[in-house]
Design a protein that fits this description.
The complex is a heterodimer of chains A (129) and B (155). With 129 residues, chain A is mostly beta strands. Chain A contains 1 helix and 7 strands, in the order ββββαβββ. The chains are: A mainly beta (129), B alpha+beta (155).
């Protein structure tokens, strides 16, 4: 049995683990084109390409090296990171390739931790090792 | 492991904060007795009031973050109950009671030592379920103290 759970795993940006992560989601999508004849009975689909992205939510900690680097990325416009790696346990990981930071948000609400959320698009091939 | 548990350190800070409730320190009350050994109000001499008895009570624990990249990955929600007692020979305790309720809350919420140990301190409720006691007011003030610690060390 190799079920993964929240007591293991982390996400590294350029080799440094991001702290205070609440959840990480890796999305992999296939692009599909449709070429249908009018009146045809079945949709005709053609595979185009695939794309991977990562979204992450963390307890907001501006003293954390990675969170600070991501905020700096947005404030300076340097949103390309050379290495984004999502470890689903201590050693198995997706990625290892460069990625573009596509969004970030900081949320404050009473009664709980402030939240930092961001998302990335991988620039190229996604691997699992 | 070096030092006392975080829970122990939190109680040290709570007791120190409550002991500092004096008019000299800017409060409305000067507390006479602060003790972790709860006593019945009729066991106390009149000159031992106002009296405060704090205790670390129930605690709920949960993960604070995904463990892999975070050092203090566990989160404790510690309930601290402060039992307070005031006395009046004329059975007029309302002002002493409301002043001390406010002073206890101020002392715990404004304590810098406690703020260095925890993430958040929240006053949760005041429980005045001790009945109508002639010449005394007795109540509990509950606080929720949320703190973080490393799961590999224990809290």
């Amino acid at each position: 049995m190799a079920i993964r759970h929240s007591m293991e795993g982390h996400m590294d940006v350029e080799g440094t683990s991001m702290a205070e992560i609440a959840d990480i989601t890796l999305n992999i999508n296939s692009g599909v084109a449709e070429a249908n004849k009018i009146g045809g009975t079945w949709t005709r689909s053609t595979y185009l390409s695939r794309k991977a992205s990562v979204s992450v939510t963390a307890n907001y900690d501006p003293a954390d090296t990675v969170q600070a680097a991501l905020i700096t990325g947005f404030t300076t416009g340097d949103v390309e990171f050379s290495d984004l790696t999502f470890y689903d346990n201590a050693s198995a990981y997706f990625g290892g390739q460069s990625a573009i930071l596509t969004s970030a948000s900081i949320t404050k609400s009473y009664g709980g931790y402030d939240k930092f959320a961001c998302s990335f698009d991988y620039k190229e091939t996604l691997t699992y090792a | 492991m070096a030092g006392e548990s975080v829970r122990h350190q939190i109680m040290d800070a709570v007791i120190a904060a409550l002991t500092a409730i004096t008019t000299t320190n800017g409060y409305k009350t000067t507390v006479v007795t602060v003790s972790e050994n709860l006593r019945h109000w009729e066991e106390l001499n009149f000159d031992e009031f106002p009296a405060i008895f704090p205790i670390d009570a129930d605690e709920m624990k949960q993960m604070g973050a995904i463990f892999g990249g975070t050092t203090n990955d566990m989160e404790g929600h510690l309930t601290v109950i402060v039992t307070c007692m005031v006395h009046s020979h004329t059975n007029d305790t309302r002002t002493a009671r409301t002043n001390l309720i406010r002073d206890v809350e101020k002392a715990i919420m404004a304590n810098s030592t406690l703020a260095g140990l925890d993430i958040m301190t929240l006053p949760r409720r005041v429980v005045t379920d001790k009945g109508n006691i002639p010449n005394y007011s007795v109540w509990d003030q509950e606080f929720e103290i949320i703190y973080r610690y490393n799961s590999s060390n224990g809290g």
